[in-house]
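User: Can you predict the 3D structure for this chain?
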Amino acid sequence: MNLLSSFLRVEGKILRQTGFTLIETSIVLIIVGPLLGGLLRGQELIAVARVRNLISQQDKIRAAYFGFRDRYRALPGHYSGAVANIPHCNNGQISTTTAAPAAPNEEYISA
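Assistant: Here is the predicted structure, written as structure tokens:
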């Protein structure tokens, strides 16, 4: 290629090229396309991870709720015997400064 390939000759005059060629445009699209596709895919993966995290948290809350209900035969927040039966419980508030041991009336089933 000669040095004047970026110039056009019209009626004996040399005019400077004012736009991009089809090849230059296609190369840019080939480079930018996968980058944008990867970016969108990454955002989708982040959204899916957030949804899975929320589902996991919901399952843990559900398990805690049903575990409390099965153990104490009452709903959390409506258990009148909480002060007597739940360690470190003071007027419905559980102290988290020390680790709470297992409930004193827990039964173990041996097979």
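The longest helix spans residues 22-72. The chain has two helices and four strands.
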